[in-house]
Amino acid sequence: MIHRIYRLIFLLFVVAGSVRTFAQTPSSDVGVWIVQSELDETTFLDEGDDVTIDFEESTGYGISFNHFWVGAFSTEVALQKYGADMSIGIEDDPAFTIGELDITSLTAMGQLHFNRAGRFSPYAGAGAAWISGDFDPAVPVDPEDEVDLESELTWTAAFGAHFHITERISLAGEVKYLSWEAMEQGGSEEDAIDVNPLTFSAGVKVRF
Question: At a CB cut-off of 8 Å and minimum separation 6, what does 15 contact?
Fold first, then answer.
């Protein structure tokens, strides 16, 4: 009887220790990011001439919140802002800048993490994105200088990795793709151009 009581007490200590450890495991994180984007080049035919629209991307930023629900599965909400100078070139003539494109994306995705307990933990994710933007022409246009672009609900996919420096602080890197055709608000879909941002991000995350 005494031995059974000892075994029961020992088991209770083990269970209590496990619950305490689980409760202390960080289940959420917030991150701040530096974002570099790559936007699609578009070429089309206009009155027999090849017209190319290209971008010179600039560095942006982002913030994120991630929560683990069970095991290696989490959901993340992230906001990114970035932009690029937009240029146009006709045939072999030199390209010239026509304005600046600013992009804002809000993504919500499910993520599957591998080796979550290890120092190096890669992940993959997919979900939905709400993306919008505006275009600021290099030459002022009446009646407004800034042109608002249609917001769009689209899809996104990403893969990345965490490098855990401490139990609470991690470095992170991520590549994210968003499908997006940009067009003027209220404009025709025939005038839309493929932008399809591909972002490369580096950030710091704090887990709690």
Answer: none
Encoded tokens for 55 = 């971008």
Tell which residue, 24, 66, 30, has the closest CA to residue 205. 30
> What's the pTM?
0.81
Query: What are the start-end ranges of the E strands in 91-183?
Result: 96-113, 120-137, 147-148, 152-164, 169-178, 181-182
Domain coverage including residue 172: 27-207
Q: How far apart are CA 41 and CA 23, in angstroms?
A: 49
CATH code of residue 176: 2.40.160.20
Of 31, 33, 35, 34, the C-alpha closest to 66 is 31
Residue 191 tokens read as 């005038």
pLDDT per residue as tens digits for the range 85-98:
999 888 777 888 99
State residue 185's pLDDT score: 87
102 inside domain: yes
Domain count of the chain? 1
What CA–CA distance (Å, rounded) separates 194 from 182? 6
Query: Does 13 reside within a domain?
Result: no
Of the candidates 91, 93, 196, the one whose C-alpha atom is nearest the C-alpha of residue 152 is 196
Flag whether 33 is in a domain.
yes
CA–CA gap between residue 203 and residue 162 (Å, rounded): 9
Specify if 10 maps to a domain.
Answer: no
**Nearest one of 67, 91, 42 to 192, comparing CA atoms:** 42
Helix (H) or strand (E) holding 37: strand 28-38
